[in-house]
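Illustration: EID1-like F-box protein 3.
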Amino acid sequence: MSANQRVRLSTSISGGSGSHESDFFNERVLLLVMESMKWDVQVLCRTASVCRRLRAMAKRLLWRELCLFRAPRITETLSNGVHSSRMGGGWPALAKLLFFCGDCESSRNFVLSRPKPGHFVTETRFSKTSGRSFLMKRCRGDLLFVSDPCEHRVGDQEDDLGVFRGVFRGFRESRTRACLIARQAALEERERCPYCGARVWSMTTAGLVPRNAAKRLGSHDGALEYFVCVNGHLHGTCWLAPLSSDEGLNGEDEEEYAMDGSDGTGNSSGGVTDGYYDDPTVTTNGFGDNGFI
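Result:
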């Protein structure tokens, strides 16, 4: 075979594979595939991990669509109904926050005997009412969603560890951020946001932790630490005090953003939707965080 023939054959083969690749990377095709799978987090993580091109497509489009499908109400609220708007920290960070309990290590205000790795959650509840418990009185005009703590067993002689997370709407214009700046609170040197990688403030160090926060979490007073990053993501840890059978929440009416795997008839739909329920949850299929950031 001559050199010219080899060149023509190589061009023909590459052209054929390029046609398949163009179909594979077609945004409409990917959207239809993900819709047919009801935006399965596991599948999307795997897809985003295949190559740089798919990772970029997921970052620009697919994670946003997943949030809109799996958590429409909280996503609508955070984006003010403008789906094309840029989410603080990016859409992958929001998706990760909804479905991933971040890892935690000791800090200057909270000591752990050993670090705890992050993991995908099986269920989570986010609440506006919980969020208000984490805001100082002068900052009550801010909108903050906070999850129930994810419980981690530490040891027989210790309280359980609670790991919680949350997100502000419009953090750059929030009163909480204004208070941090007015107090000249310094950003932490070592701590980073587990969802977007940005630098964070320690709300404990800044003196902006309301007493209601410990009560809301079911924690001992002062036995908690949480951080807020420059993009408005919150993550924290606490020691969970044992509750008696007659103890519970503070009796406030909650406006909760529920996410579950039901289609409204009691049958699993394979996806996650959100709404207002007495016992709202987020249900996911975990895979790992290498497809997010």
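Reading the tokens back as a structure: The longest strand covers residues 219-229.
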